[in-house]
Amino acid sequence: MIAAACACIPLGAVADERELVYTFIGPVAGGGMNSIVHHDWFDYYTGTKKYSGWHASGGLSIWVISKWLIGDFTIQYLYSSNEAVLQHLYYTLSGRVGIRLGNVAIFSPGVGLYFESPPSNRRYKGGAGARVPIAFLFNTTFDTKLLIEGSAMYGWYGIGDRSTKFFYGINLGFIFKVGRI
Q1: CB under 8 Å to 2, separation ≥6 — which residues?
Q2: Is 113's pLDDT higher than 90?
Q3: Beta pairing class for 144-156 and 105-117
Q4: 153 strand-pairing partners
Q5: Residue 136 clears pLDDT 60, i.e. is over it
């Protein structure tokens, strides 16, 4: 009986300290720079061409925020200008650590994945790769947060053979609390 009491008392204390997990959703917009290494068959030879340009995006972001762990999913429409204009859907998925900066903000570094889906306005087959995001979530009210996120991404580029893409940028968004888990 004493052993059962010793095991249950700490579990009850942990249950009292549990923090709820909240879900936030809202609009997000971003932009940045990209660099592409394009391996393909060009006219009469196989070769490599390098392009750089800019991109702009806008869409919707969903965040799940607990005391220490944060997850997010974003879907955006990406407009990319390199050797030619490319437009398609762009998805990100990240897991993060939430470091609270008092009641003002949350610093949130993490790792994740990105996916670019076909079809687009060219013969683009889509792309995917790794993502390293760093975000600041500022408490604007109890139910809303302003987010500023920077990220760097590297992965496969969907035109050509073994083509790669490196891009980085910043996203700005305003998310609203919609519920709790």
Answers
A1: none
A2: yes
A3: unpaired
A4: 131, 167
A5: yes
Give φ, ψ of 15 to 5 degrees.
-65, -35
CATH number, domain containing residue 144 = 2.40.160.20
Domain presence at residue 140? yes
Number of domains forming the structure of the chain: 1
In the chain, which residue ranges form alpha helices assigned H by DSSP? 2-16
Domain presence at residue 3: no
Give this prediction's pTM: 0.82
**Alpha-carbon distance values, 109 to 132, 137, 152, 153 (Å):** 8, 11, 12, 14
User: What pLDDT, in 10s, does the model give residues 153-173?
Assistant: 999 887 777 888 899 999 999
Range of the domain at 162: 20-180
Instruction: Please report the pLDDT score of residue 152 as a whole number.
Output: 96
